[in-house]
User: What shape does this take?
Amino acid sequence: MTTWGKAAAAVAAGLVRKAGRGCTRVAADAAAMLRRVVAGTASAVRAVSARGAGPGWPKIVPGAAACAVLLGGGSAMLWLAAPVEPSGAAPPDGETVVFTVAPGATFGQITDTLVARGLIRRPLLFRVYGRLRRDDRNVRAGTYALDAGTGWGRLLDALVEGRVRMVPVTIPEGFTLPRIATRIAGITELPADTVRVRLGGEDGHARWDLPGPGLEGYLFPDTYLFAGGVPLDAVVGAMSERYRSYWTPEREARAAELGLSEREVVTLASIIQAEARAANEMPAISAVYHNRLRIGMLLQADPTVLYALGGHRPRLLYAAMDSVADHPYNTYTQGGLPPGPIGAPGAAALDAALHPAEVDYLYFVANADGSHTFSRTLSEHNRAVARARREAAGAGPGGG
Assistant: This one.
């Protein structure tokens, strides 16, 4: 074989070895195609060398070999780069496409998903690209939302860095654990009953360094962003951490000044939260309960009785109240604050518990419009109750 022939064959063989290393198993056929082309070229070079080449062959042979290699390599690359249409209509550039990478999915399976969703059209070349970046085994599972037309580099960066789709979850003020469980079950992809059981344990507070009893009242109401399929512990951790952030040194000092523990402040705030329709009335409602606690008067808070009964009822009848007369959360029969919160108070209710209005009210009653009338004496309160009932019946203030 001439020197030029040997050089061409060596270059071609090097290209084959590099292709073999850079390609994934899916691209192995392309590498094999290139090997066959190179093998054929080498055979031709050897045949010409064996017969003896004329004066022009030293220039023709390397050129022919190079062309053969380029043609073969080009054929292989065209095969790799051939576009594949998605199974459905391709989304227009800029449209958000949602897809899921399952735990344990191979890079090939992930590529197939991207093709099906119209995010890439050249799967074989994309697999080679992922292999060359050494990221074909670094993709993180999760649900993603990416724009159609996103370049391969940005797309693969998002998959490797785990930039999963974030879903907002809002927990309103006053929600109890069962209602919170129902709200977050979808994001955790667990059955609501399973979430309720796991949140409802009486010792659930211990793991998260919360006052207790249980998690009731300590999963702070707010809007959170979670990835789909997020573990329940991660949700509880985020919500309890948000609760913890409320307790600044100034608020801790204020609770100590009032002679209340953290649990007692949250418990009182949960009652205020359940009673108030408007935040501007919370300090006055707080004052009523602080005044009653100070003189040893029963709190007589309807929301605590409803909590003992297991939830909201259109009307709270005496028979129902009697059925839970001995329940520790029945503040009509049990003195002081109940053992723990009856729901999740928000920051406004907590602030009201720490900063009651400077008034001497001992009573309040709800009006038909959701506002409250506050009274200092029982006789004033009874008149307010009668007036509220007339309004609720449609007679209006001062009616018969």
About this structure: Residues 11-27, 56-61, 64-72, 395-400 have pLDDT under 50 and may be disordered. The chain has four domains: 3-81, 96-161, 169-246, 274-361. Residues 57-81 form the longest helix (25 residues).
